[in-house]
Specification:
357 residues; alpha/beta; Rossmann fold; Dehydroquinate synthase-like, alpha domain; binds the ligand O=C(O)C(=O)C[C@@H](O)[C@H](O)[C@H](O)COP(=O)(O)O; DHQ_synth_fam; amino-acid biosynthesis; nucleotide binding; nucleotide-binding
Length: 357
């Protein structure tokens, strides 16, 4: 079992490894045992596959379980209110502990619920996807608004992240693609050797379970170091948003859940590399093509339809479009891009993709 500390204002540990859920009672038994209620907010699809294992690990605690829609559909006002209604109907109090069981979406929703129920109750992230190595760490919680992704949310750190590798074994292909995008993002902003290694795999299927665990640990370490330096995103934390300005615009434009988050992030990273005039773009596009990321979808998305969302990005201001760009691998920076240049780069990228597929 591997452990990483995240030294934020309220520090916590990320536990990674097969069978990690047993730590819920071994390490967090005091917190959970002292709660008047333990509430599991579970992704409904994940619950079908893995809830028994989680409940087994929570034996004796008699948790209440609320199933929410799978994936991005969970991050709605309706789900948010359903969670609060459930907590109230179960007579939960400030002494209740919430467990988020599922991928990034259920983690974001549950964290937001935990941060707002009676002005805040403790929560533990129990992630079940590759993508969640990113979203479960760092304390960003949110639901979506039709006008922009993650627009309603808080910074609220979990008490622990218990990341059990067994849950990753049933991930569908598009979820593997989605999660690996965030792993590659962590490599782009931190470490050239690691990026070389990730882009050199013949395909995502060629990554063994053991190697994956190592990559996830590296990704979490990159993220934890940045979050420790800038928990509330005044500066360097923005680098974790590499590829996200366009990605979030695509997700909002298409409708949440129509493209996985990580797949959209791959399109967004390609765009950021184009804006950076980065020599990394060709091999990155090739990796994305080999692994069947939906590059071709850009052709149906005119720049003018994405622009309003990009203007609302949290890194932008009313007057400017701000992107995370890359000087070289491991050297991210923020730049304000004039609209015309943003449009020209988008058109160039679409042309390059059209020629290669
Ligand atoms: O933790 C962060 O900071 C990130 O930006 C990580 C992103 O990969 C993640 O998707 C995050 O939820 C995006 O946050 P947002 O503030 O751009 O909504």
């Amino acid at each position: 079992m591997r452990e990483l500390r995240v030294e934020t204002e309220h520090p916590y540990t990320v536990h990674i490894g097969q069978g990690a859920v047993k730590l819920l009672t071994e390490r967090y038994g005091d917190l959970l045992g002292a709660a008047d209620r333990v509430v599991v907010i579970a992704d409904s699809q994940v619950a079908e596959l893995h809830l028994d294992k989680l409940l087994d690990a929570l034996k004796g605690l008699e948790p209440k379980v609320l199933r929410v829609p799978a994936g991005e559909q969970a991050k709605s006002v309706e789900s948010f209110m359903d969670c609060h209604s459930f907590l109230l109907s179960e007579n939960c109090s400030r002494n209740t502990v919430i467990l988020a069981f599922g991928g990034g979406a259920v983690g974001d929703l549950s964290g937001f619920v935990a941060s707002t129920f009676m002005r805040g109750v403790p929560f533990i992230q129990v992630p079940t996807t590759i993508l969640a190595h990113d979203s479960a760490v760092g304390g960003k919680t949110a639901i979506n608004h039709p006008l922009g992704k993650n627009m309603v949310g808080t910074f609220y750190q979990p008490r622990a992240v218990v990341y059990d590798g067994d849950f990753l074994e049933t991930l569908p292909e598009n979820e593997i693609r989605s999660g690996m995008a965030e792993v590659v993002k962590h490599a782009f902003i931190s470490n050239e050797g690691w990026l070389d290694q990730l882009l050199a795999y013949d395909s995502l299927e060629a990554v063994s379970g053991e190697e994956l665990e190592g990559h996830l640990e590296k990704g979490i370490a990159v993220k934890a170091a940045i979050v420790e330096e800038d928990e509330f995103e005044g500066g360097v934390r923005k680098f974790l948003n590499f590829g996200h300005t366009l990605a979030h615009a695509i997700e909002a434009h298409l409708g949440y859940g129509r493209m996985t988050h990580g797949e959209a992030v791959v399109l967004g990273m390609a765009y950021a590399l184009e804006l950076s005039s980065s020599p990394e773009l060709p091999r990155f596009l090739n990796w994305a093509k080999v692994n069947q990321y939906p590059l071709e979808r850009l052709k149906d998305m005119p720049f003018e339809e994405l622009l309003p969302y990009m203007k609302k990005d949290k890194k932008s201001t009313a007057a400017s479009l701000n992107f995370v760009l890359l000087g070289a691998v491991g050297q991210p920076y923020i730049e304000t891009i004039p609209e015309q240049r943003a449009q020209a780069a988008y058109d160039t990228l679409r042309k390059t993709i059209k020629e290669m597929i």
